[in-house]
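This is your field. Have a critical look at both lines of this record:
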Amino acid sequence: MKHIPIFQDFAAKMSEAKKVMINKDDSDEWRVAWGVGSNLDLGMGSSSTPKLKPHELLLSEAITAFMKKYHHFTAQVTVQKNPSRKNLIGDITLTETSVKKHRFRVNYNPDQSYTHIIKSLLHELTHVKQVVKGELLPNAEYTALLWQGKEFISIQEYNKILKNIKNQHLVYRNLPWEQEAETAAHDLYEVFLSSPEWASLRGRDTTLDFIMDNI
């Protein structure tokens, strides 16, 4: 299976608070990287990935439904949590499966505030929208990235940025697909909290009710 990248969101500082933390200020720096990923069948879960708890599943389904409706796209999206990489906020992998069949796996790190979990999923689902709508795609050889139908950067050059992300952070953040995803993570947060998808979660899980009361 051909594949390139993993869209990865990194935080320069991760919250030390775990499940009890609901809110956190947005002073954390969000960095995004797209590195070479492993082969993934995006329709299947990983045996090494912790299963989502009921409130986590409900929340991820609501965010996914919100983004599909907001951006008018359809895709098969599997959300899972991956706490193994401590400085990772979230990622997706772009493969032939996602490009041709619109099947995606979105990972997020559960060891962050629920505010940042929601923003992380909004960010990653923006990348899903970009791929589904043909805005962000690999070329036929998977050697370059196309943005809005035009070759934007080679994978070789892209990976050079990633390998030196500390010094190339601003270059990376200025990539057009990352600008859109980061803007969405912040601008759509309040929109989601005012959405029917968010409101529909009330009363379905006691933990989720607590989150909704305190976020």
In short: The first helix runs from residue 54 to 71. The beta strands are 3-11, 30-36, 76-81, 88-95, 103-108, 136-138, 144-147, 150-154. The chain is about 40% helix and 20% strand.
